[in-house]
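haha ok so turns out i had the wrong file open the whole time. this is the CORRECT one, sorry everyone. sequence first:
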Amino acid sequence: MSGLNFVPAPLAQLPWRILLLVIAIGGFDLFVLYSAAGGSIRPWALSQGIRFVVFLAGAIALSRVRETTWSSLALPAYGVLCVLLVLVELIGAVRGGGQRWLDLGIGFRLQPSELMKPCIVLACAKFYDMLPPNETRRFGAIWPAALLILVPAALVMKQPDLGTALMIVIGGVTVMFLAGVPLRLFIGGGLALAAAVPLAVNFVLHGYQRNRILVFLNPESDPLGIGYHISQSKIAIGSGGIFGKGFLNGTQSHLDYLPEGHTDFALATMMEEWGLLGGVLLIVAFVGIVQWGLAAALQAQSRFARLTAAGLAATIFYYVSINMAMVMGLAPVVGVPLPLISNGGSSQMTFMLCLGILMSIDRTNRQTTRW
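then structure:
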């Protein structure tokens, strides 16, 4: 190890096994987007690669932030993001039929709802960290956390953005479960939610959201209309077989049969050319990242760090699993992108923020173990 003494300590202390996995996924994504553009680095691969480098550097910088700093910033950051979500409703920029962005000038738009995904985990973890453990099973441990979750979720639903609202709810509820809220309450809540689904479908969801659920329940009802996305996605994935058609040889995306083949359905574009083998290797890489995050949670010394690390690892898992299920027709299309694979800065930023905080907790764990 003496030959590595020239490496600065902050860099040597980074979890390089995980960083190399992230770099491998991000690098592979550039091939997917290059192919989706018909063999060109523009308009997607180049910009995605630049964002990847910038956000990865940001994640490494965040890994140097102390765990106590994340704890002290959790609730203030939550409050700021709630204010920004209200501003989105009042003055937000409209794009693609949704009002989800704040235009900050110089060509930069901020999507506060994306930042809320990791922030809700931090806020709920902070709440339960402040709460005495013997109070966790009482009603006073439930309604404040439920309020923390439902306020931003309702604001995001107004944009409308069902996928992001769903991610916020799942992330917060996961922390509640890990904090020790009684299982019977989750069962009761699940039954109440199941009973409310018909009402929500008919009176809460927008028309296109309702149609996506109906198409999921009956995929063949409108294969050339509402069900076109998922039908073409299944064709692309199935035609790839085990080993795929080969790089640049995909037809569904190149002939524009597959809509959104570079964003929400980028997985279908990838699996058409790289096959089941490529999909399995991608899943294994993400499983490695999630497993590392859960290991960091198990090794954490504080309740806040344990809940935060487990919640963020679960957020990454939900991101990946919901998108994959959606693209394969196993879940309704809710607009959840695949981190590091789908083109776009928002999901990339959220993933790197989760990674940076996890690396911060992991660094604290290793320092504590060393002492």
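The chain has 13 helices and three strands.
again sry for the mixup
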